[in-house]
Specification:
Helix 10 crosses helix 13. The chain has 412 residues and is an all-alpha fold. It has 18 helices and no strands.
Length: 412
Amino acid sequence: MARTAGDGDGRDVSGIRRRPKDRKAQIARASAEAFSALGYHGVSMETIASRVGISAAALYRHYSSKYELFRGAVLNLGQQLVDCTAQVDGADPQQVLDQLVSALIETAMANRSSGGLYRWEARYLHGEDQAMLNDQLRTVHERIHRPLTALRPELTSRQRFTLSTAVLSIVGSIVDHRAKLPAAQVHDLLTQLVRTALSVDLPDVPEHQEPEVAPRRVEPSKYEALLTESMRLFNLNGYRETSMDDIASAVGMPTSGIYKYFSGKSDILAAAFRRASDRLSAELSTIVATVSDPEEALATVIDAYVTRSFAQPELENVYYCERLNLSAADQRILRDLQRSTVESWVELMGAVRPEWTPAQSRFAVHAATSLVIDLGRLMRYSNSHEARTTVERLVDVTLLGRYRLRTALPTK
């Protein structure tokens, strides 16, 4: 019997293999997922070609370079956020705001396997492309600001931007983890968290406030100094852009001396993350053991987490931006440590928010930790009482459902 087009092997009646009409779309999806999972430097043209099921030579017929694919993937994600909010309009500002949030949630859920790309890898965009992404995100922020201003005219421009950042952070938090929950429940929970966050009264943080600067610690050993200075440099310049010579110079030792303690940069990165995880775990255990009331314990955990994040911002930032530079084995260990920490928070949530299932609490905890880093980055981790109070209030309402009045906490 003669073979006909559409028999399933991509050949027409002459037996010639035809290129699928959606080949470029397949390549775009595969590249976005690859860059998100492996990081910009961890992906090659061969990697993407393999995911699509074609040769690298065939891939070069569509795209001239890895950067062209990367640029397209990141800016496509940004454009999806612009497009999904473009047609939302109406006379009722609350309804408009709800529709905007719903559209953003649907877009985040549709891109859960690749959405982390614009959040953590976009720093590799070149100048004009970075500006284009910034314009896309600014458009989305402005669309949130319009109904928010109508509902809360008392907000300053900075406060509006803080709250729109919180919206995108809560919604975007689902791309940073793989916890499971039915799609309808994810939508309902994120909607609830966003509505609560948008009602928060925020302190007015001055535009040019001088941060509270803690004295620089003097590390008692070369090992500690290597961990501390490495993380500072990774945060300042990027892991790939920091050399062993840079680290040695910062510590004041010959480069060869580093290898007495670590086998290489990846080993330093893994050791720093494990050290931070161990300290976080010990802190959680101490709080749970000494604070009997679950809500007070959770509130204490929140305060400690925010205080530490602003005192040592490089830990959070480097974790999200550079974790893909770890070996596969170290990445697994780090994921297990992170899950253990999240589960400790979820256990406390069980008593504080009994209306939520553990799965819902898990999503809320990830949203809360996302707020800490996204708002911290927005504020450039200005370690002031007002900045920390802003973050603490938004994390409070995310996990507790309300925020607490506090006295000023010391900077650690």
